[in-house]
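Holo prediction — adenosine-5'-triphosphate.
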Amino acid sequence: MNRNEIMQWLREVRHPAKGDRDIVELGMVENIEIKGESVEVILSFPKRRDPLTEYLVGSTRASIIRNAPGCKVEVKCVVKEEAKKKQNVNELGTEELAGVKHIIGVASGKGGVGKSTVAVNLAVALARLGYKVGLADADVYGPSVPVMTATNGIQPEAIEDEDGRQLILPIEKYGVKWMSIGYFADDGQALIWRGPMACNALKQMILQVRWGELDFLLIDMPPGTGDIHISLVGDIPMESAIIVTTPQAVALADVLKGVNMLRNERVQRRILGLVENMAWFTPAEHPQEKYYIFGKDGGLEMAKSIGLDLLAQIPLVQSLRECSDAGEPAALGSGPDAAAFLDLAGTIAKIA
Ligand SMILES: Nc1ncnc2c1ncn2[C@@H]1O[C@H](COP(=O)(O)OP(=O)(O)OP(=O)(O)O)[C@@H](O)[C@H]1O
Ligand SMILES: [Mg+2]
């Protein structure tokens, strides 16, 4: 029996928490010493309290005895404290997003057009269609997801993963996994973030969350289109985006700002299309009626003029606002607004 042979046998010892990779591949075999008929193996662990220590020591011993019956085996462990890697936000990787199929940003050229309303209701609508959905509220300046889903006041749990990294568990409600910086601030407390802090908070809301398997991760993007914003958005790992607008002709300039931001060379994201919010007003007592108070087909004209698809028209209905304020997204219901969001969800699922 020689060192190479033993290395070969140790390749049969797999680490169940590391995607079943073996301990040789994982670099855990620190040393092998052969003295006649006895072998001493030293395994290195990245942290002190690895719950799998006993298991791996036992498997290592068993693997050698299986291949060399009668051999005396001693397995020792050492701890190599490099576990705190990746705690620094700047070093956060995208591994937590590995199970996410599509990451889609919800953007707008200016504030107050209903970006968060569309993001939250689209998430709920996609979940109603049977997709696994998460939503990251990346609006670090004014998070609205906690209120819109009545999850404010809930403190997300933090866990430690196999590598000793802190991860946040999203809050699950209405079939969607939600995450927002708002969960970490007291109710009503103003959030004032300077550039780098905003960027770190934003990255954490997306990269330091245990999303698990998702079909769609929506990102309610921070408002604005300036330089700071472009660099923020450039750092968010998302593949595409939708732009929310209202139908007025004057909104075109803002939509163009949003488009330019997404097409900026630092960002360069695919734009799936435009969502026209508040396309018409429908009174609760006359659900068939449409009042085009901001003008008719503004969104369609806008989409045509900039060569984007119009993905949906969402009506202005009082109950949509009331549902948002009450934390029960309208997309859970059966009104004309819910129908519009379900339509949009179907379209997104097709083109994403
Ligand atoms: N289609 C609609 N019908 C009725 N009310 C709406 C509709 N869309 C949005 N609202 C209401 O308009 C207000 C602004 O919407 P929302 O917060 O979604 O906008 P936003 O673009 O995310 O704003 P911000 O830029 O501040 O993040 C909210 O009170 C919301 O309930
Ligand atoms: Mg918002």
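READOUT: The pocket of magnesium ion (ligand 2) is lined by residues 115-116, 139, 144 (CB under 6 Å).
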